[in-house]
Amino acid sequence: MTNKLLQGFKLFRKNAYEGKSASMPRLVSEGQSPEYFIISCIDSRSNPGTIFSPEPGTFFAHKAMGAIVRPYKKGTALAAALQFALIHNKVKEIVVLGHTGCGAIQAMVEKIDDEEISSFLDVAKVGLEKAKTSCNGVCTHNELLRHTEEEIVLLSVENLKSYPSVASALSENRVIIRPWLFDMESGELLQHDDNFKQFVPLTMNTKKKKS
Ligand SMILES: [Zn+2]
């Protein structure tokens, strides 16, 4: 059952522990000092450990359905992790990584009949309301999904600022927050541009078909 995991682990071990460029022995003896903290969806296709091809020690990771960051509440897993990353470590950038085709966002838009899931998704429903407003009643269902995916990233970024560890790091210019969206269909990574008020590509997929 777990063969795929064990095969992958053997490959990781070969790369990370053997040879001159192996990084794990050094990271174990010297400790870690990641520069990034990535908040992403639980979706298996937008896993930062996959899509950024990271070396061990590159980033701290936190996952939640839809990459949703709820407003600050003392004692949550995310509050403790951010405290550790920003106060006891030297993280310089926080990435909120949403993605297109997100099942969590779809569940929110289509009002999934599951109380356990909906009670979490509800903390971000203001993002859905904003998307509906910007659609002005003329969007297709798919367009509403995309707008909601984008609004949830922006809402999560705003909610992050309510965490004391983030607020103090921001006030001391020690951290930058990146609102990112992984477009799974086109294979592009986008970042929200405050000037253009929209998500713009950070990368261009050179293998995209020419039209
Ligand atoms: Zn998702």
What does this protein structure show overall?
The structure is a single chain. The chain is 43% helix and 17% strand. The chain contains nine helices and six strands. It is of the alpha/beta class. The model has no long low-confidence stretch (mean pLDDT 94). The protein has a single domain (34-194), classed as Beta-carbonic Anhydrase, Chain A (3-Layer(aba) Sandwich). Strands 2-1-3-4-5-6 form a six-stranded mixed sheet, covered by helices on one side. It starts with a helix and ends in a 10-residue tail after the last strand. The site of zinc ion (ZN) has 7 residues, from helix 5.
Q: What are its keywords?
A:
211 residues, 9 helices, Beta-carbonic Anhydrase, Chain A, binds zinc ion, alpha/beta, single chain
Number of helices: 9
Largest sheet: 6 strands, mixed
Overall spatial form:
globular
Beta percentage is 15-25%
- The N- to C-terminal Cα distance equals 43 Å
Quickly count the domains.
Answer: 1
The total count of strands amounts to: 6
Rg for CA atoms: 19 Å
CATH architecture: 3-Layer(aba) Sandwich
Named CATH topology: Beta-carbonic Anhydrase, Chain A
**H-E order:** HHEHEHEHHHHHEEE
By secondary-structure content and strand pairing, the structural class works out as alpha/beta
Q: Quick one: CATH class?
A: Alpha Beta
Q: What is the oligomer described by this structure?
A: single chain
